[in-house]
Design goal:
Blueprint: H1 8-19, E1 30-32, H2 38-41, H3 44-58, E2 64-68, H4 69-72, H5 75-83, E3 96-100, E4 106-108, E5 111-117, E6 125-131, E7 134-138, H6 146-153, E8 158-162, H7 172-176, H8 180-183, E9 186-189
Parallel strand pairs: 1-2, 2-3, 7-8, 8-9
Antiparallel strand pairs: 4-5, 5-6, 6-7
This protein binds zinc ion.
């Protein structure tokens, strides 16, 4: 799973209904957290407690959290007021922490994963996933950044790019100005409620959509 917003149980349930894929919260083995804005990490509290209880009852493995070190360094600072059980609990009681490294690929869920920092106002990592000769690129949150788009597009079969109002996000008008060969591989995420899909020819990601590449 990439990022973990408050609404992740509902998103998983709806995705399951639309796709027909069984996606069980207790079966999630790996979560990549791109950054610590709430809409990307608030669900870690409920996921952490759910899996902590399940671990205590059954001995099942804790979920692995994969984060860029600057993100990991401040994660417990964010979660502790809700999760430290008055000092009795620590981050490793809930999650197994693994660092994403900009210098080398990580093996996550059978995929080779590389990361690169974006120009979002807090440490944020964009991602690339390689498996079976295919490459999926994930912008994470970022302002429009041609050098990041070059990194994402290199060898990519699918580019998931964010769009939202600037300056900390990417306006769709700038994505519309990209070369057609890049736009044809692109899907949009992180749209706000006012977003008009008719403002671009780049398709929006749909919850529960299964994409074959
Ligand atoms: Zn953000």
């Amino acid at each position: 799973m990439i990022d973990c917003p408050d609404s992740y149980p509902m998103a998983l349930r709806q995705a399951q209904e639309k796709s027909g894929w069984k996606i069980d919260q207790l079966a999630i083995t790996d979560v990549i957290v791109t950054h610590l804005h709430g809409d990307h990490c608030n669900g870690l509290e409920s996921l952490g407690f759910l899996r902590w209880l399940h671990h205590r009852e059954t001995g099942a493995s804790l979920p692995k959290l994969h984060l860029w070190k600057p993100v990991a360094d401040r994660l417990w600072e964010r979660l502790a007021p809700a999760m430290d059980q008055s000092g009795a609990a620590k981050l490793s009681d809930y999650f197994e922490i693994h660092f994403l490294n900009q210098e080398r690929e990580s093996l996550i869920g059978g995929m080779k994963v590389s990361c690169r920092g974006t120009q979002h106002p807090i440490p944020t990592s964009a991602l690339k996933f390689k498996a079976d000769g295919k490459v999926i690129a994930w912008s994470s949150d970022t302002p429009f950044d041609p050098s990041l788009i070059d990194w994402l597009a290199k060898d990519a079969d699918l580019i998931i790019h964010e769009t939202s109002p600037p300056p900390t996000h990417t306006p769709v008008e700038l994505l519309n100005s990209l070369a057609p060969k890049i736009r044809l591989k692109m899907r949009l995420m992180h749209m706000n409620d006012e977003f008009d899909p008719a403002s671009t020819t780049i398709p929006c990601l749909q919850e529960g959509e299964v994409i074959s590449i």
